[in-house]
Input
Amino acid sequence: MAWTRNVMRVNLTKGTIKREPLNMEWAMEYLGQRGLATKYFVEEVDPKVDPLSPENKMIMTTGPLTGTMASTGGRYSVVTKGPLTGAIACSNSGGFIGAEIKSAGWDMIIFEGRSKKPVYLYVENDRAELLDARDLWGKSVWDTDHELHKRHQDPLIRVAAVGRAAEKGCLYAAIVNDLHRAAGRSGVGTVMASKNLKAVVVRGTRGVGNIRDPKAFMKAVNAGKKVLHDNAVTGAGLPKYGTQVLMNVINEIGASPTRNMREVQFEGASKISGEAMHEIRKSDGKANLVTNAACFGCTIACGRISVIDKNHYTVVNSPKYWGASGGLEYEAAWALGNDTGVDDLDALTYANFLCNEDGIDPISFGSTVAAAMELYETGAITKKDTGGIDLKFGSAEALTKITELTCRGEGFGKIIGLGSRRLCEKYGHPELSMTVKSQEFPAYDPRGIQGMGLAYATSNRGACHLRGYTVASEVMGIPEKTDPLTTDGKPALVKAFQDATAVVDSTGLCVFTTFAWTLNDIQPQIAAACEGDWSMEKLHEVGERIWNMERMFNNAAGFTARDDTLPRRLLTEPARTGPARGKANMLDKMLPEYYRLRGWTPEGTPTKETRARLGL
Amino acid sequence: MAAAKKKPAARRLARPARMRHIIIGAGPAGVIAAETLRKLDPNAGVTIIGDEREPPYSRMALPYYLSRKINEAGTHLRKTPRHFKKLGIDVRRDRVTAVDARNRQVKLAGGGSLTYDKLLIATGSSPVSPPIPGMDLPGIHPCWTLADARHIAKHARPGAKVVLMGAGFIGCIILEALARRGVQLTVVEMANRMVPRMMNTTAGGLIKQWCLDKGVRVHTSTKVTAIEKGPDGRGLRVRLDNGTVLPADLIISATGVRPNIGFLKGSGIKTDHGVLINRNMQTSNPHVFAAGDVAQGLDFSTGEYSVQAIQPTAADHGLLAARNMAGHKGAVHRGSVNMNVLDTIGLVSSSFGQWMGATGGDSAELCDRNRFKYLNLQFKDDVLVGATSLGLTDHIGVLRGLIQTRTRLGEWKEKLKHDPTRIMEAYLANTQAVGFNAGMI
Amino acid sequence: MLRALKIEPEKCTGCLQCEMACSYENEQVFNPSKSRIRIFNFHDEGRFAPYTCTQCAEAWCLHSCPVEAIVINPKTGAKEVIEDVCVGCKVCTIACPFGTVNYNHDSGKVIKCDLCGGNPACAEACPTAAITYVDIDQTGLDRMRAHAQKTLPQSAQAA
Ligand SMILES: Cc1cc2nc3c(=O)[nH]c(=O)nc-3n(C[C@H](O)[C@H](O)[C@H](O)COP(=O)(O)OP(=O)(O)OC[C@H]3O[C@@H](n4cnc5c(N)ncnc54)[C@H](O)[C@@H]3O)c2cc1C
Output
């Protein structure tokens, strides 16, 4: 059955912890993780709730394959209402704590209320307690992690924590687990900190069993592993270059948003690419990249572990950052690099370390800095605002300084911590904010990859590449090649990707498997592990159900069709270079058809028939 | 071997006279020695003389017999039927009353004597009875032999009032077994903490607290002053120096042991606390060796010769003594690390080497009283010399490994002082090939 | 020809597939905490180290066992724990200087690598061939063996 069938409910206001049986009826309709936790969430929380009030809840959730031997089966998600967007937020993370939660015997942990004083949750199998975290408050994630390992005298505990940025109210704070994996987007860390919950510490020694058909499961798992191994992207490209394999590719097709998305190609891309991370630095004779590393159970191992040159200006006086740690992934490299015009690889690595150390989303952060740089260029922001920082595009010093401030919630960093929309509104230029539903863009320019424009505009958690990654089809030809410069067939493509991703995010598996796997590879693993009917047809239906459930929550929270749009710049300022030269995004050519395919009204709400069909 | 096969004649000529090995004591030290001798010299005569009625068994297994994890056969050192016969090892039930070293003979209680070329003394130790009035009353047992264990098993019924005298290492192991039998248990210990010779005040105190939490009454810093018959003639009463009087159905005495060396009087073999041996396990008589609880062997940590009275040392001694008896000149003892692991009603503790610290050394310590977790590392320079742990069971053997290899920890010492839980990393970093990922990148 | 696990830490990515395969083979659950092979993560250096019993010739665990619960499998050379015989005294866990025998709280017995009877699940599961099962003289065990010798309470030449 793969689910543990146990839900932990932690009421932080009352300080109580209770066990509840998992609602199996819902599990049959929503599978697990993203789908199932969102179902719990929408059933329990008023869509109008203030995200940072005690009435908001936060669910840490695993999937039925989390903690199993299915490749990449170590994922967990955090579901809540996001403070950055005001929309449903669901952030997914790898590392090891997801499997640990499962191994301790829990499918999900629901946090409600707000503790009077800082606490952390300590879970050791059946035993769970809220422990005093007053001495941890004000500490970074890294310091908190080290302290907790020592305190519990157990190298094998897994820690997920928030850092100082979250405590200080940064609206895109992340929950960081295992030092450098993060439930990164939409400010789920801000919600956690608002509950006075500093960390979740887990040790599970029961393991994950109860596989419906173990023989069939191992067969499906091994078949899946083989597909990943034999595939050029998951078997070679990702292990070697990580997601950074994309840096040069996306730049070449003219879809690399640069300097707050004014341009679509970055002249410095090759200096901060996956290939560049392999190059031996002249300064210290070492490469930036030390090794690739896997999350729990992952046979791809795309993770980057990097070191900064000890003599680099960022760390020369801080031995703390001389060791290896989580290096640049594509989105971070892009946001901190291309979008701010900075091409100093070690400076970006340092900024990335800091984002991990104190838990902020590097995408939203980098994009917000990019907006601030443009505001600075136009004169809307001056040194008086920045506290003396010369916030010019391309300035590595400015970037690393502002990263330090934002991570610690100090000075101008507090303003940067509000995100691009609030920043640009504050300084009178809302049009310079590159956001959808207040969430910043990731690393694919919708002028060069048309389908992504629709994916961003309709994403349920604001601009995001992980809700429908049509890049796979439009750029890499997975599962089949479509033309990135046209809108033909894109509404159907976006819908299909969105629904399929909703399924993957509900299994416990990593969405990166879908560079090689389709649902056809995943379905046998779920069917062998889980009780119930898990045919392909059923999975498609589950994906669509999840998507519509999230949409309905957002509609009830006040979002309408008007929010399904892109910043004016992307719709009206054509790309000036590259293959997409002369093109802006043609969202209006796609959106109406997308609504029709979804079975939504022109106002963007699911029709009665659609709701009935999906049982919503 | 190959060469020998080709020249059977030469081999026959070179063959020495058949060696006669005699081993006194059928405990682990004696049995391991006998088996090793057999392996090293297929032709030698190997005889074990043991005075207990049972087939060679393990004292260490007695607690598990008491807690019903195993039956009597489960305590036997060897499980294969006719194991010793098949190996051509002669196991005799008798008692050696004296050693005539000049004539290389041992005298047997059953009459007669046996001649040896090499003799191994592996007679172990026996419990000492403290000088307390009433110790000779019925209903007071040590827990040392299988015969003792049978008595205890008979009387330690659920609900029975049991007083355990002595909370040393052996006492604490028995405590676990008794608790599992569901008796009403009270422990009396003279020292200020439990397992005083294996744990420091913090760790010993935590074990006591753990026992109290589990419903075991524990009196530390307390002496038994007298044992008397119960008021109505049934049962016993234990008087403590703090004025308490404890009623008891059964009293178990675990107040210490002494090496069995009495029969060596007049043999000329030198003894101190135990039998004195050198680094070849040889006694003052070159044909006589000693091993196990009876031997005063080299302590790895202190460099002194002492009786450790633990199973791994008995096994080391037995192996090494046999190699020396078979004439392997290079088999020199490097000293055994004193170490123990203890399970006290589910709380696992361990201690190694100089757990109490070395002069001029320093240490790292972590203590979580609420969760009964404790870790203490003792260093001399950058070498680990001792350790104590509570609640740690994964990879604890590396503590022995690091101590006994005298591994220089280098930069890892500072890391361990900062966070001693990284011991396994320190071990691997200093002893194993730990590579950078060169596979994919 | 006896075979042994060859471990090439430089190929390890820390994915724990081996730990899951091991626990699944032995305990019928995916449970790294009950794995006989463990991956250690040197975080600050970006290194991983798979680590398990080398089936060393000295067999400290076997000799220290008071009840003969650890025996040699003649087919594989592995030192195997006979669960029914093990009393859970844990002496082998402190006697093994490599720290590769662990106590299992749930079963009350010790666990160690037994090479899965000649078909090690960890090697099969490893996606990067960091763990392979090869002829014994290819394993480069020398380093570990040398270390074992140092630990020996007697001199090296005794056998
Ligand atoms: C209850 C209990 C629990 C223990 N738990 C542990 C533990 O957890 N860990 C640990 O390391 N150690 C433990 N020990 C100690 C361990 O059992 C001994 O260290 C070990 O048995 C020593 O082995 P040995 O062969 O030297 O002596 P023994 O096992 O004592 O064997 C000696 C044998 O020689 C016999 N003998 C003596 N004199 C003569 C004679 N004159 N003629 C013939 N035979 C004679 C004795 O009767 C005995 O049978 C425990 C002991 C007991 C009693």
Summary: The first helix of chain A runs from residue 24 to 30. The pocket of flavin-adenine dinucleotide is lined by residues B 24-30, 49-52, 59-60, 62-63, 95-96, 122-124, 143-144, 170, 173-174, 260, 263, 292-293, 309-312, 314; C 89, 91 (CB under 6 Å). Chain A is about 40% helix and 15% strand.
